[in-house]
Amino acid sequence: MTAPHAPIALSCGEPAGIGPEIAVKARAILGTEVPFFWMGDPRHLPPGTASQVIHSPTEALALPGTVLPVLPHPFAAPATPGQITYANARGVVEVIARCVSLVQQGQASALCTAPLHKKVLKDGAGFKFPGHTEYLAFLAGVEQVVMMLAAPALRVVPVTIHIPIAEVPRALTPALLEQTIRLTEAGLRRDFGLKQPRLAVAGLNPHAGEGGAMGHEDAAIIAPVVARLAAEGMAIRGPLPADTLFHPRARAGYDVAICMYHDQALIPIKTVDFDGGVNVTLGLPFVRTSPDHGTALDIAGKGIAEPSSLVAALRMAHQMAAARTG
């Protein structure tokens, strides 16, 4: 397996959040182990940052690990940690689009995105997408993608994501479930080097419906899809009771857990590895990862932001890009 010959593009995210400072911390931790450059307005970096403006991504490869390579993108205004500036919303969206373009052109090996403030983008830039994932799918011209949260001890995929729990049964269709499973299985093969990924599918209801006593969706929707895919040769089991799916012995039996709704997936992974979880988008024609946390405006600029998830996201992007090119 060969390493990618281009650096990772790290988008700035919300400039008033912790994105700029954890980018600096990540560079200090990773050095040249994972080559990346940060795209944003240099004015938004913490004071005293050892950075170097570059004019093309390849220049990042020549810089020492103690210096943050910066591909500049001018924003409308300076940024004050913890204080939202709506005038900068447009710049945040433009940076994402520029980074995607660089990855599509092969000038960057992967995309890693710092957290967004969705309300700021909506109010300040008329952003019409629920978040990063949907915008990236739009830029890539892809109809459906899958959000996977990954850590060394656990990978999870929610089939339905940012919707009220009351809407989950209606949104959970056989077509959506099957497409999510297929994209997940293909992504584990392509980006994680698993020749025969093992998938565990959680039930929607307590005890996976308990034969219809606690809901009909498990038997009517989930079980037929799982049976059909298993008959094709996929290593898949389910529906399985979610309350016994995430203890260590259970986790040893699968490579990813397919979950039916947001909290069913995210509570376990954030309990198992709160700082090391990585948000991965499967189904895109390029690699995309992100730290599994928000902008943390309340601690921005205080120097206490934890960079572990960003470090893990950059490392995972590097490994995934190598898997695609190796």
Automatic annotation (TrEMBL):
Gene symbol of the encoding locus: pdxA
Subunit text: Homodimer.
Domain of life of the native organism: Bacteria
Species in which this protein is naturally found: Gemmobacter fulvus
Main location (coarse class): cytoplasm
PANTHER family (UniProt xref): 4-HYDROXYTHREONINE-4-PHOSPHATE DEHYDROGENASE (PTHR30004), D-THREONATE 4-PHOSPHATE DEHYDROGENASE (PTHR30004:SF6)
Keyword tags: Cobalt, Cytoplasm, Magnesium, Metal-binding, NAD, NADP, Oxidoreductase, Pyridoxine biosynthesis, Zinc
Family membership noted in the UniProt record: Belongs to the PdxA family.
Record's miscellaneous remark: The active site is located at the dimer interface.
Binding residues for substrate: H132, T133, K270, N279, R288
Name recorded for this polypeptide: 4-hydroxythreonine-4-phosphate dehydrogenase
Pfam families named in the record: PdxA (PF04166)
Gene Ontology molecular functions: 4-hydroxythreonine-4-phosphate dehydrogenase activity; cobalt ion binding; magnesium ion binding; NAD binding; zinc ion binding
Cofactor (UniProt): Zn(2+); Mg(2+); Co(2+)
Binding site for a divalent metal cation: H162, H207, H262
EC number(s) reported in the record: 1.1.1.262
Cellular location(s): Cytoplasm
Cofactor binding, per record: Binds 1 divalent metal cation per subunit. Can use ions such as Zn(2+), Mg(2+) or Co(2+).
Reactions catalysed according to its record: 4-(phosphooxy)-L-threonine + NAD(+) = 3-amino-2-oxopropyl phosphate + CO2 + NADH
Pathway: Cofactor biosynthesis; pyridoxine 5'-phosphate biosynthesis; pyridoxine 5'-phosphate from D-erythrose 4-phosphate: step 4/5
GO cellular component: cytoplasm
Catalytic class of the enzyme: oxidoreductase
Described purpose of this protein according to its UniProt entry: Catalyzes the NAD(P)-dependent oxidation of 4-(phosphooxy)-L-threonine (HTP) into 2-amino-3-oxo-4-(phosphooxy)butyric acid which spontaneously decarboxylates to form 3-amino-2-oxopropyl phosphate (AHAP).
Example GO BP: pyridoxine biosynthetic process
